[in-house]
Amino acid sequence: MSTPTPKTFALSLQDGLATITLDRPERLNSLTFDIYRELADTFAALGEDKDVRAVVITGRGRGFCSGGDQDDIIAELFKRDMQGLVDFTRTTGRLIHNIRAMRRPVIAAVNGVAVGAGAVIAIACDMRICTARARFGFIFPRVGLCGADMGATYLLPKIVGLGNASEILFMGELIDAEHALRIGLVNRVVDTPEACVAMASEWAGKLARGPAFAHSMTKQMLESEAQMSLADAIEAEAQVQAICMQHSDFRTAHDAFKNKEEPVFLGAPTTPLAKNS
């Protein structure tokens, strides 16, 4: 793996699957200035790493991520002027942008509480699996802030709809796992943190073994088509699918089907298109 080893959290790579584990369990994996910066840099690097085909992010201990650390970040923000505050909020937004911009599927294994920035990190991922004890909290109103933080008002309505998103962001109340599943905030609920990480790794492993170039196109189009008309979306998909049909993975899948074998996709997300034969 060409991605640098981070200093503020754990990172591993096996069989194309990168796993990020936030590692401040005594603080419910709250974020510091350094963690924000290194997470953003790491997602950017993973997006360029040819060995990485899928990503899981989780937390160690009882929490997924409890947001910005009260001592390291919140207390410091009261000392900053307007420019300093904007610099900080742009730094936090860069992390979310880099999660969405990378063309690998990202799965959040929400092993416990996910509030504030932790909740936004979770919704920036492509899929979310949580434990029955998980709690989600977009608690910005409780601290006198608006719900428009780190892209939350952009991302959340796309996942749960405008009405549910409005309730969540105005009220700032904690959402339990059952409620999260009911409104589509999470994809699955499992019993234990171990089962949560195991399912997320299983899903991500399946994606890592799949057609990486095609998966990168799927993520790109899910992002891009939200701003298109239906006619423009259909035309864009026609062109994108034609590009995928020129990729070597398309031939690989066809040959495996004919030979009654499982396809072995070797193409990286940025593999050049194969020449027509």
Mind sketching the topology for me?
Blueprint: E1 9-14, E2 17-22, H1 33-48, E3 54-59, E4 63-65, H2 70-77, H3 82-101, E5 106-110, E6 113-115, H4 117-124, E7 127-131, E8 135-137, H5 152-160, H6 162-171, E9 174-176, H7 177-182, E10 188-190, H8 193-209, H9 212-224, H10 230-245, H11 248-258
Parallel strand pairs: 2-3, 3-5, 4-6, 5-7, 6-8, 7-10
Antiparallel strand pairs: 1-2, 8-9
Helix pairs in contact: 1-3, 3-4, 5-6, 9-10
Characteristics:
6-stranded mixed beta sheet; globular; 277 residues; 2 domains; 4-stranded mixed beta sheet; single chain; 2-enoyl-CoA Hydratase, Chain A, domain 1; alpha/beta; 10 strands; disordered C terminus; Lyase 2-enoyl-coa Hydratase, Chain  A, domain 2
Description of the molecule:
With 277 residues, this protein is of the alpha/beta class. It folds into two domains: 9-209, 2-enoyl-CoA Hydratase, Chain A, domain 1; 212-258, Lyase 2-enoyl-coa Hydratase, Chain  A, domain 2 (Orthogonal Bundle), CATH 1.10.12. The chain has eleven helices and ten strands. The relative contact order is 0.11. The model is unreliable at 271-277 (pLDDT under 50).
Proportion of residues in helical segments: 40-55%
What is the CATH level 1 assignment of the largest domain? Alpha Beta
Oligomer: single chain
Q: Could you tell me how far the N terminus lies from the C terminus, measured between alpha carbons in angstroms? A: 32 Å
Which regions are unreliable across 5 or more consecutive residues at pLDDT < 50? 271-277
Structural class, by secondary structure, is alpha/beta
Q: What's the CATH topology name of the largest domain? A: 2-enoyl-CoA Hydratase, Chain A, domain 1
Main sheet overview: 6 strands, mixed
According to DSSP, the number of beta strands is 10
Query: SSE order, as H and E?
Result: EEHEEHHEEHEEHHEHEHHHH
Please state the overall shape, judged from the principal axes of the Cα atoms: globular
Beta-strand content estimate = 15-25%
CATH superfamily of the largest domain: 2-enoyl-CoA Hydratase, Chain A, domain 1
| Count of domain modules | 2
